[in-house]
Amino acid sequence: MFYKSLKTTLSVALGAAILGTSVAAAEFPTRDIRLIVPWPAGGGADAISRKISNIAEQDLPKSIYVENIAGAVTATGLMQMTNARPDGHTVAVLTYDSIITLPRGEMVPGYSLDNMKPIARITSEADAIVVSKQSGIESYEDLIARAKENPGEVRVGVAPKGSGPYLSVMQLEELLDVDFNVITYAGSSSAEAEALLSGELDAAISSLGDFSGLLSSGDAKGVVELTGVQNATYTDVPTLKSKGHDLQTGSFIVLAAPTNTPDDAVETLETTFKAAYDSAEFQDWLAQIGVTADWLGSDEVVAWIDELQSKTFALMDDLEL
């Protein structure tokens, strides 16, 4: 009788535990979701993150709010994410610097991708060269001609050493046999946009989407995109491949959560963001700003990150960076 009673008690307890776990998973999220963007407000990563989260939260019982926490080339914000409770209520945006620059340079003690669980890649963007209206440069050919005629004088703004745009300008100098006056800007592309607008820069390298405001106003002009695929939005901006050179560089937006976040929570987040990604509202908006929709789910994005790191680190070795 005792064993029968004990068996019944254990069965009830086990059933309650399973039911409790199922209910907890089904109830996720139980509070608002914090989406950390590790760049200042106003840049391309910030705009994309806000747009997709605004759409995604419509399918959730709670809100998604964006918090900009810049610093240490994205490490400050991302380490706040990895130190948060791993329950799915804190996620963050990873960009090129998060996956390449920081791990490569071992720049911040305690920062590691091992502390993160990737959820999905949302977009990818080719780098492009954008020139200031004040520069008087009208085309890719004008830019290269001026650089050849005035070595070290054409001012080109890029993100700090080790970043994607920095690698791009180093490769371009070697590929085209030119010498730019390379000026680095910490923070998001908004700093370079301001420098283009003021005339502090002749050109800058980032995605066309990052400079969409200046391109729309006519204060800047895209002269070449570092890809082999023509941009469907900015059809007047030629590809570098069309100019006879094969160089493809760019950035991306990846979502991640703390490494021990339950699979059920990650699945809910992935499904919710995928629905937002597939929406006509988001796809139309991406087309307007010239950003490529480029989804990879949680099963695929980890392998993609490993491959990207291997390829890029090998290139950095070749350039002695």
TrEMBL record:
Keyword Chaperone attributed: no
Domain of life: Bacteria
InterPro entries: BUG, Bug_dom1
Signal sequence range: 1-25
Keywords: Receptor, Signal
Family matches, as SUPFAM superfamilies: Periplasmic binding protein-like II
Family classification: Belongs to the UPF0065 (bug) family.
Record-given protein name: Tripartite-type tricarboxylate transporter, receptor component TctC
Organism whose genome encodes this protein: Primorskyibacter flagellatus
